[in-house]
Amino acid sequence: MITRTLRREFFMKRRLLPLLLVLLTVTPPVIFAEEFPSNPLSRLDRCDVVDAFQISDLVFVFRTSQLPKDAEIQTEMSKLIPAGNAADLAEPHGDILILTEQFLGFSTSLKLASASAINSQNGFYWKITWICLPEEINSSGVPYRFHAMVKPDGRLMIPECHLCCETTLEDFEDGTVASDRKRGPSPMFFSALSFADLKQSKEEASLHGDEIQNIATKTLREFIEKNIPDRPTFPYRFRSQSIIELPVGMIDKHRIQYQKVWAVDFIPRDCPADSILEMKPFTVWVTPDGFPSTLSLQRWKAENRRSEVVAGGK
Question: How sure is the predictor about 251, in pLDDT bands with cuts at 50, 70 and 90?
């Protein structure tokens, strides 16, 4: 791998960046996971994924199909738009910023972390990384990072959005999970729903809350019975459910499109009564018209499953 480091100075709106580290890497795009090895990114199926990042239960995905192609490909770095312009264009705003802050739980102050000029098999593109810091409250731990990708001519690559919740199933009596007959660590368990599936929800077919709860419970129960057949009892119980309104796109420059989704939360069956509210739940997402999130063990795919179901005539 050949790596050169270039240092540049530029002024951005509301920011003076005396030294911005711009990395030029002559390698194919690098796939990486965030700081925590147990989070959804570490178990994401990376087929056709060039980059991904996570903010709470929200996962953003960039596809290799979004990279420059044909006439868009630029092999000379001197012909890229300036790093400052790319960073300015890539700053989160509109529906993406509102969505990010909704999952962060606070208004964020975005700090530019890096602007990297990546030279891939599809030529150059910019990858911009922002650090999400709270505006008014103190925080601890590793902050979330927001990624943006910009084509050589300044056009943004719009990421896919996916809701994803994960948990770890406890060890079972004989330590078996599906076809794995060896005792080992508890398997990771995922629940994922794409915004593409969510946006296909038909408002006129919206269901009542009790119907949504039944769909979520049935989905979870059938999945466990199929994939963990040796489990003597259903290991979860219903805790609560809520309907959330999420920004899913822009209608025009000034109007944001919103879509509702149900979050049905389950907790371990044997959770002590005094820990019910503190226990991190496992969420089954359900669209208003009754389409549930996809459940999986060990790994998960960022996919638009609803289109596949319709295409398959199911």
Answer: confident
Phi, psi of 297 (to 5 degrees): -110, 140
Q: What are the CB-based long-range contacts (under 8 Å, 24+) for 203-211?
A: 203/288, 203/289, 205/288, 205/289, 205/290, 206/288, 206/289, 207/288, 207/289, 207/290, 209/241, 209/243, 209/262, 211/290
Spell out the domain ranges in the chain.
Answer: 2-158, 165-311
Centre a 10 Å sphere on the Cβ of residue 301 and count the other Cβ atoms it contains: 17
Tell me the pLDDT tens digit for each residue of 143-165: 899 999 999 999 999 999 999 99
Tell me how far apart the alpha carbons of residues 225 and 219 are, in angstroms, rounded to a whole number. 10
Q: What is the pTM of this model?
A: 0.80
Average pLDDT over residues 67-90: 93
Q: Cα-flanking dihedrals φ and ψ of residue 164, to 5°? A: -150, 125
Name the token pair of 213: 């709860």
